[in-house]
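Structure record:
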Amino acid sequence: MQHFDIGCQTEQLLVLTSYIFVFFSFPSDFTQ
């Protein structure tokens, strides 16, 4: 199961970074 944990953590990080990217780029689009 530990072998899977590393893959899950990296995927969660990728999802988190993509979410942050969307969060930062969307508000500016909405306000303009």
